[in-house]
Structures are given as C-alpha cells and as structure tokens.
Amino acid sequence: xxxxxxxxxxxxxxxxxxRLSIGSDRLRPDRTxxxxxxxxxxxxxxxxxxxxxxxxxxxxxxxxxxxRMCFAARTAGDPLALVESVRQAIREIDPxxxxxxxxxxxxxIEEAMGQEKMLAHISSFFGALALLLAAIGIYGTLAxxxxxxxxxIGVRMAMGARRTGVAWMVxxxxxxxxxxxxxxxxxxxxxxxxxxxxxxxxISTYDGATLIATVGILSAIAAISGFVPARRAARIDPMxxxxxx
Length: 245
Hints:
Elements: H1 3-9, E1 19-22, E2 31-34, H2 83-93, H3 105-112, H4 114-148, H5 150-158, H6 163-192, H7 208-234, H8 238-242
Antiparallel strand pairs: 1-2
Helix pairs in contact: 4-6, 4-7, 6-7
C-alpha cells in the first residue's frame, strides 16, 4: 500500500505484517491479503489531484477485478526499438495475451501534463498581454507628462540643468510607477499564490528566484518604457520650450 493508505488506516504504526480484507459485494467477496511493504505516494492521471490511496496486489494473486495489466520495461536507448522483442517475450508466455497501447514514459508524462501545459500557455499569453499593456500605460503617462511639462523642462535647462539630468528625472518617474506597482502587487501575489499551489510542480509556492526575476523583469520593462519619453525630454530646445504654451 502507499503512504496515504498507511497513514489513514494505520496511523502511528508500521502496517507491514498486518492483514487487509478487500471486497465490496457477493460478486467480489472479501479477500484477505498480507501487507508486505509501504511505497511512496504517486500520481497516475492528473498532477493537480492529490495522490490517491492505493493498494498494489501481486498479479500472481487471484483478484477478481483484474481485467488487464500494465507491463513496464526499463530500457537503454530507444525504447520503441524493443517493442517487438517485448511482444515476442509475452507471446512466448501466452500467445493469447494481446499487447496494446504501447507508450514510452515520456509520452505518458506528456499526455498527463497536456492540460497543465495548455493552461500554462494560456496564462503566459495573458501575462505577456498584461505586461505589454502596463508598458504602453507607462509610456503614455510619461509621454503626456513630458508634453505638459515642456515649459518647466525648458526653464530647468535654461538654468543650467544637463540633458542627462533631465532624462534621468523622467526615467526616475517611470521606475517610481513600477515601484508603486510592485509594492502593491507583491503582497497580493503572495496572498493569491496559495490558490495556485496545486498547479505548481517542482517549485515552492513562495519561490524566491521567481519573485526576484519578476521584480527584475518589471523594472526592466519600466526602464524601457520610460526611455523614449526621457530621450524626448532631453532633446527639448530650451528656447522653443520657453515659448511653449
């Protein structure tokens, strides 16, 4: 049996050596089996579901519900090249045993992860779309601000402000907008990450590398979005800016 079954029916004790009766009705009467080991939990169909409570019964033991079996072969090299050899070995045991639905482990994993991959691609698309809209929003806000502050920028430059200083002033505003968004968004993301725990595989809910990468990407997008308005502000002619209304 697996760990989930052992913890549910034998909490705090070793189930090995105990006997277990399995059956449900007169067509499948109770049969008693001795527990010989405990295996780790495993997921068979969907990665989102919790590992089911599972009992493994030897194929050599009579079991009324046995209608088919899965034969797994460990190979070195191309596994599909050995299909005919496996088929011949099974045929030697019993010519009437059919071998069907032959798949490699990679194919089985890809099929099991198909829905998760589709959801990941959809989520990535909408995430990229949201990032693009945010970049356009930052660019539009700063471009409008530069237009509205053209006279102010001209006065600053007439008073001796350097073009690099003007560009950095606009760029700081872009980074400030991204900073406010991160300050508001990160706590919300951490709170909502618990809802996504069942969709994550191989990483923790609070993955530090992912958070750092997110902050870096958003900061880079903000800097890129603010570069054009900052460059435009740095190229303003002070004399024309002073005549601007």
